[in-house]
Amino acid sequence: LEIYIFGGLLWGEIYSGYSVRVEQCWKDKQQLYLETQLIGPAAGEAVNEVDTYPVIVLKMERREESVVFKM
What is the pTM of this model? Predict the structure, then answer.
């Protein structure tokens, strides 16, 4: 039986064209750290003025450490 955990990060309400990327991942004895960055649309890219909620969800093997998202 494989057991997984899912971690997620939801950024607030912003216009379309944004995404979330994991920049770094490291751990110590008690925590797993995930440094994330909000990526905006490219210069000149058309952006719809529609509210969106950029999100990232990570599937990981079950672990004892706490997961910390750093923005």
Answer: 0.71
Give the Cβ contact number of residue 54 at 10 Å: 20
7 Cβ contact partners less than 8 Å away, ≥ 6 residues apart:
34, 57, 58, 60, 67, 69
- What single-letter amino acid sits at 2? E
Could you tell me the pLDDT band of residue 27, with boundaries at 50, 70 and 90? very high
Q: Which residues, 6 or more positions from 60, have their beta carbon under 8 angstroms from its beta carbon?
A: 4, 5, 6, 7, 32, 67
Please choose, from the candidates 3, 1, 7, 19, the residue with its C-alpha nearest in 3D space to the C-alpha of residue 59: 7
